[in-house]
Amino acid sequence: xxxxxxxxxxxxxxxxxxxxxxxxxxxxxxxxxxxxxxxxxxxxxxxxxxxxxxxxxxxxxxxxxxxxxxxxxxxxxxxxxxxxxxxxxxxxxxxxxxxxxxxxxxxxxxxxxxxxxxxxxxxxxxxxxxxxxxxxxxxxxxxxxxxxxxxxxxxxxxxxxxxxxxxxxxxxxxxxxxxxxxxxxxxxxxxxxxxxxxxxxxxxxxxxxxxxxxxxxxxxxxxxxxxxxxxxxxxxxxxxxxxxxxxxxxxxxxxxxxxxxxxxxxxxxxxxxxxxxxxxxxxxxxxxxxxxxxxxxxxxxxxxxxxxxxxxxxxxxxxxxxxxxxxxxxxxxxxxxxxxxxxxxxxxxxxxxxxxxxxxxxxxxxxxxxxxxxxxxxxxxxxxxxxxxxxxxxxxxxxxxxxxxxxxxxxxxxxxxxxxxxxxxxxxxxxxxxxx
Length: 436
What we know:
Blueprint: H1 15-35, H2 67-87, E1 96-108, E2 113-124, E3 127-138, E4 144-151, H3 198-203, E5 207-212, H4 213-216, H5 246-261, E6 267-275, H6 277-288, E7 294-298, H7 316-322, H8 345-350, E8 357-362, H9 370-386, E9 408-413, H10 421-434
Parallel strand pairs: 4-5, 4-6, 6-7, 7-8, 8-9
Antiparallel strand pairs: 1-2, 2-3, 3-5
Helix pairs in contact: 5-6
């Protein structure tokens, strides 16, 4: 039987070596305390005191008094900061892109909807990726508005429609869905249809356009596939420090989908929507592409709608540690150092102005910091006021399941981190009034 070996063998042949060994032991003993994340804070009394950056005061201290000053000065510098220091900059232009309508039918959802399936191909440096856009449009409405959003497990998971193929892209393993080896199967058809109230949209004159986000950029800390690798120079294996992470890549994919949608004669306004990490992508897409007529963030949390400086629930350090591929490398220096951030997420929301914006939270989703999401929408509203648009007037959160609907809208619903019929009922009602 082989005896147990010591984890560390010390040979203190000199006083210097002895000191080095003692330091090594100390590091080994203390490293769990040094590197372990503290418990997440869910206590409002422990939220740090912090000055919130004013959207209407420039980095150099000059006040912004009107929408022209906002657009020509303040909006530009805020956008540049988020682009270079948070989400990362798109490194170059595509060489070419194309669209192929490869399937179309008028028999979807019992004949009440038209279905279109479009392949979007992006090419750079003689490398190409292709992802699929699934569209349902209400029949009887020759030019319908649509909600555009990513799904997590494949277009086939949002519907029982057998005409939608199973994605061949990388998907996250999910024991409850029977997904192993990162491959979707027929058994996953329709497993996420509860998150997409497609018939409710159709009955209200709206369509849905959706994409599996893994076809644009697989959600893993590996930049060797997906959108990023199209842009690499010789020998490059990952983006540069201030270049795009996955959230910016997903936002880019939404903008290229918009290139198709704005030229589809059956589609009018496009409202970009996202849940959780894809809510972060929807917000950045709305900030970078003004063609989106409205923006919806559903439970987007840290790096999305929630204020970073509150350090409530998920924090900058936690999100960069758990998902190092989501943001630009330059964002990591603000982990456990949020006080030095010259911006916060209410200024991201302000970049959407004057277009309609909806932020939604869930009462049981404390990780995403509902209060921080609400306060972001509240503090962004002063930019909307420059345009004569009504936002959120009071810093007091509304009651659960009591939505505030203006050009800037907010609700916190009962329940957990998810997308529900209740959410979609609010989004449809709001869109009918404010997205025109």
